[in-house]
Design brief:
Layout: H1 2-17, H2 21-35, H3 38-48, E1 81-83, E2 89-91, H4 92-96, E3 101-106, H5 111-117, E4 125-131, E5 144-147, H6 150-155, E6 162-165, E7 171-175, H7 178-198
């Protein structure tokens, strides 16, 4: 992935600064005027901002429901705006920022699974409920809540869907099976726990 990013950067640099003759004329009189159009600029930014990079074959990615619509394991998690349970504006990126893994459960149907997953590790894993309505008082143990429909729409998530987001903002898993996420996190976090035990 790093080699691909460097190769793309080198090609981009050469196409802007290292051209001579006819290619330079085409750059100045055809390419630069085209780039000024908003649609062309949007496509160019989408290609060069590196957000389309995906890691579906990473050891950190749990293969799951391949037929799902929306972001899949290995894709970058989209941001979503909403409010917390007390009405404070927030974004999903705010809730996932840090060195922890985040499990997002969609709808009240995910509450039991989130409660189960919340006990894995307080500092390494955090849980978040994405819901259209304020969660009931019996969900006070799910400490981070994103209220609003944007997250559900962007993830195209059905009620009960669980999404595991890596610390770097990429999806590690997408499933309805809390046990699969628990096993995946236990495998990944085991070396860390072993180091903490020996330290």
């Amino acid at each position: 992935m790093a080699a691909k990013v460097l190769a793309d950067s080198s090609r981009g640099f050469e196409s802007v600064f290292a051209l001579r003759g006819v290619r330079r004329f085409l750059r100045d009189h055809l390419i630069f005027p085209l780039v000024k159009h908003p649609a062309v600029m949007a496509r160019l930014l989408a290609k060069t901002n590196q957000l389309a990079i995906a890691y579906p074959d990473s050891a950190l990615t749990l293969r799951g429901e391949d037929r799902c619509r929306g972001p899949r394991p290995g894709d970058r998690a989209p941001d979503a705006r909403g409010v917390t349970a007390d009405g404070t504006p927030t974004r999903l990126f705010d809730l996932t920022r840090g060195t922890h893994w985040t499990v997002v459960g969609f709808g009240e149907e995910a509450a039991a699974a989130l409660r189960e997953l919340a006990g894995i590790s307080d500092d390494a894993v955090r849980t978040c409920m994405a819901t259209d309505n304020a969660p009931g008082s019996d969900h006070t143990d799910i400490t981070r809540t994103l209220i609003g429909s944007e997250a559900r729409r962007l993830f195209r998530a059905q009620p009960g869907t669980l999404v595991l987001i890596r610390p770097d903002g990429y999806l590690a898993a997408r499933t309805r099976d809390a046990a699969a996420i628990s096993a995946h996190l236990t495998r990944i976090l085991a070396p860390r726990k072993a180091l903490e035990t020996t330290a």
